[in-house]
Amino acid sequence: MPIVRLQRPMRLESGQILDPVEICYSISGEPHSDGSNVVIVCPTLTGGIEVATQKEWWFIGPGELIDTDHFCVISMAALGSLHGSSSPSSINPINGKQFGLSFPTVTVTDSIRANQKVLNMLGINRVRALIGGSYGGFFAYTWLTLDPQLFDIAIIFQSALRCSAHTMAAFAFIRELICSDPAWNQGSYVPEDIPSMSGMQEMLGFNRLFQLSHSRLEDLFPVDVRRQDLKLDVNFSKPCSALDKFIAGPPGSLKGSDPNSLLCTLRSSTLFDLERSIPNLWARWKDLRTKLIQIPCAQDWRYPVEGMLSIHRQASSNGVNSQLRVTRSNYGHGSYLYDQQSLGSVIPFLYKSLYA
């Protein structure tokens, strides 16, 4: 995938300087000179940026809602992430070694400011649509605030203007799991040791639980199955059910993982508070020409409907063309990627908005 190196060092939100600054991006299709066919898809927390070919992004592709025969789809990797942009795993030109823990703390706002420069270098000064959910929703809200005239439409799923306390607490626990693993070695781990790091394996098990709603876990392990599965003759210190294997079982693969980059991304999410980073947010949104479409899920306990409803009301009072469409899914958070049926009622509305 192409990588753009910015021409100048970048002063970060923390005041530190990042140099060099590289942004990895994917692009599917050719952008029109007026940008009328350009769609920017913001990254998920740990997912890749090849959104036109990933099965999770089921509504992007030939003949889909985001028809890649019609639209030029661009996605850019976040600073600090696992997916090719400048991060702790990048090589420091000063000593020829990975930055590791010497890589500075980066924020969502830092990533968007870098992404803006990439768009300028690509000659794109108008974008038809902006799409993001959860962590990608953080990116989308920040894009809208920094450049309120750039986008025609923004579609944001299950997100908020700040990281929730619950998510911050979960990420703090994940950090402790990784950093307390002796193999992490104060960030100086050997790459070959990553697949066997107990902290990374425990983190993935915790994340399986954290990601799933109550209803979805009940669907996966219904009570009748649990009754048959539980073993009364197994010592209380030992695993006794399929749920033990689900939570504590080994991951399918940790290939390509980098603990320091994961920690950097989690901190970027934890620090997200757009009204703190850009105090005049609502004044900027008075100039927002974008049609804002927010799609929360009623079963999402991480970013409940009330948060997006509050944004919708505030945006509407500022004259923004804001729409709110609530979906329902036992998947809860992330259902827009994993439960196609949950978007069935809103797809016609989205299609009409995108192709009008």
Please tell me about this protein's structure.
With 356 residues, this protein is α/β, with parallel strands linked by helices. It folds into two domains: 3-166 and 274-355, Alpha/Beta hydrolase fold, catalytic domain (Rossmann fold); 174-265, no CATH class. It has 13 helices and ten strands. The strands form two sheets. Strands 1-4-6-5-7-8-9-10 form an eight-stranded mixed beta sheet, with helices on both faces. Helix 11 (305-317) links the parallel strand 9 (291-295) and strand 10. Helix 1 (108-121) packs across helix 2 (135-146). The protein is globular and about 70 Å long. It starts with a strand and ends with a helix. 40% of the residues are buried. The model has no long low-confidence stretch (mean pLDDT 94).
Protein traits:
356 residues; alpha/beta; Rossmann fold; 2 domains; eight-stranded mixed beta sheet; two-stranded antiparallel sheet; 13 helices; 35% helix; globular
